[in-house]
Design a protein that fits this description.
Radius of gyration of chain B: 18 Å
Structural class of chain A: mainly alpha
Radius of gyration of chain A: 21 Å
Order of helices and strands of chain A: HHHHHH
Distance between the termini of chain B: 60 Å
Helix content of chain A: over 70%
Number of strands of chain B: 0
Structural class of chain B: mainly alpha
Number of helices of chain B: 4
Oligomer: heterodimer
Strand content of chain B: under 5%
Order of helices and strands of chain B: HHHH
Largest sheet of chain B: none
Largest interface: A-B, 83 and 71 residues
Distance between the termini of chain A: 46 Å
Strand content of chain A: under 5%
Shape of chain B: elongated
Largest sheet of chain A: none
């Protein structure tokens, strides 16, 4: 399912359709997280990706206002070369997987591993400093985005 | 529903790695094929999500919560990256009136 939607993301001509397929892909990923009993990651994926990032994409598309399919596609040679390159990457990874040859089932050893309570304890004990630094990163990204997106009165 | 979760727990680790690899390869192909800057960004999001899924699968497999904390940080990073990147795309669009990346091959205008 998610493979199908991911293929549709990169093959859809209209960018709006592409974004909607991306929503479906992220939804299937959320289902995977729930199956892995990773509750916290599933919720964060649902809210951040399907809520925030996709709305951001849609707003940008609205601002840019691509009313026509103005995108000329690349030539067939470049396309074939790109697919070959991606296929080579896939083959290398799968071959490495075959060499390693682990096929144990993913057993959920600790049933409350991915719950919010447990992850919160780890996040605020061992990973307190990276957590604070990531807040700084988000702040600087916000300031940078606002600075870039506002019009410069001197140049324009 | 309970039996469904029981069968879901017997999915081999290989399948998760395979799914992540396929999604990652699709993302790489998307970056290489398309010329629309926004679609390239979405392909990058696909690649990040593949890595997230792999990290979560390994974290559950090992019974170690560190992987899921790492996924959380990757998501924060992706949000920041998307905000800055889309701002850059809007700026490019204002300057060149298109989001075709081949317009930018001169590195100045």
């Amino acid at each position: 399912m998610s493979i199908l939607f991911a293929v549709l993301v990169i093959s859809a001509k209209n960018p709006v359709h592409s974004i909607l397929y991306l929503v479906l892909t992220f939804f299937t990923f959320t289902i995977q997280y729930i199956l892995l009993n990773a509750q916290f990651v599933a919720i964060v994926n649902f809210i951040v990706y399907m809520g925030a990032i996709l709305v951001l994409f849609l707003y940008t598309l609205m601002l840019i206002n691509l009313n026509k399919d103005s995108e000329p596609m690349k030539t067939n040679l470049v396309k074939i070369a790109a697919v070959l390159g991606g296929g080579c990457l896939l083959v290398v990874v799968v071959a490495a997987l075959k060499v390693i040859g682990v096929s144990d089932p993913v057993l959920i050893k600790d049933p409350n591993l991915g719950l919010v309570k447990n992850l919160g304890k780890i996040l605020f004990n061992e990973f307190l400093l990276p957590f604070e630094i990531s807040s700084l990163l988000l702040l600087s990204a916000m300031v940078g985005a606002v600075l870039l997106a506002t019009k410069d009165p001197k140049t324009t | 529903m309970e039996s469904f979760f029981k069968t879901a727990q017997t999915v081999p680790l290989n399948h998760y790695i395979l799914l992540s690899a396929i999604i990652f390869a699709i993302g790489v192909m998307g970056v290489l094929i398309r010329r629309n800057a926004i679609v390239i960004f979405m392909s990058i999001e696909l690649m990040l999500n593949a890595v997230n899924l792999l990290l979560t699968a390994f974290s559950v497999y090992r019974g170690d919560a560190t992987g899921q904390v790492f996924v959380f940080f990757i998501m924060a990073l992706a949000a920041a990256e998307v905000a800055v990147g889309l701002a850059i795309i809007v700026m490019i669009y204002r300057n060149t009136n298109s989001i075709d990346i081949n317009v930018l091959n001169r590195l100045k205008w």
